[in-house]
User: What shape does this take?
Amino acid sequence: MAKINRQRTTKTADKTPKAADETKPKDVKEAPKAKKPRPKVNVTPAPESSKVAPQKTEEPSPIPPAQFEMEVHHHPQLDHSPKPWKEYLLEGLMIFIAVMMGFIAENVREAITNHQHVKELTSQLVQDLKTDTAQLNEIYQFETNILKTDDTLVNLLQRPVKNEEIGHLQKLVANSHNIALFHPSAGAIFAIKNELHLKQFSSSKIISYIAAYERHTELLHTAQDVALQYQRSFVDPFLLKHFTAANLSAAFSGGKLEKPEMRNLSQEDITQLGVDMVLIRIVNNELLRDNRRTKNDVTTLLQYVKERYEPNEE
Assistant: This one.
């Protein structure tokens, strides 16, 4: 019972404030609350000397943007619908034809350039071969005269030489102590050998003719070296031992021998000179044979070049 009474008393206590609130009129507004005054704070102003004047920073003037007209390209609306296979085949065929035409044009241009280069080289070769031919003919005539002198000298040395034949002997010895050297014009041949990759040369017989010409030219040079060696070994000692200074100078300059004489000349010296001149004459004969072989090679090569390449001849 006691618990029940307590609960009732608490319920009645809770209801009483609500009743008091209901008794208040609804239109009456509550008075605003009074604001509390804030205490004043005395602020002492700072001295003028302590104030720092703010510095003004000058802002850079803005750079006006460059004025230009912008091109505007309007792209058309393309139709990206799939193409039929025939168009792809046609495009591939056109590309193939373009590549082939370029390849053919390049080959034609290279063929024209190579043909012109071959024409220049063969023209120069013809001029060189003509020069070599003239030189070989001149040397052949000169060596023929030397060989005749050798024959006369060998015949003279086969018997005792008389005093009245001393001057004639000196002239023969001086004339036989001579040689004409052949120097081929190898400029065009050297250039052609470096250009053998060209079709005009690689598919021809020009290299075989050049090889034969160079082989006989080398033999001719070998014979020339032997002839020079024999003259230095056999004729020079005879000149130094038996000629006087005046006679030696007159014999090689073509002057007149005022007093033909020989120093310390014996029959043994004459016999030995005769044997030496036989060897020199053999070498001179070899020079003439090699000269003719080389001349035939030049003629054959020159004729082949003219018929095959038709070079320009000045």
The longest helix spans residues 85-157.
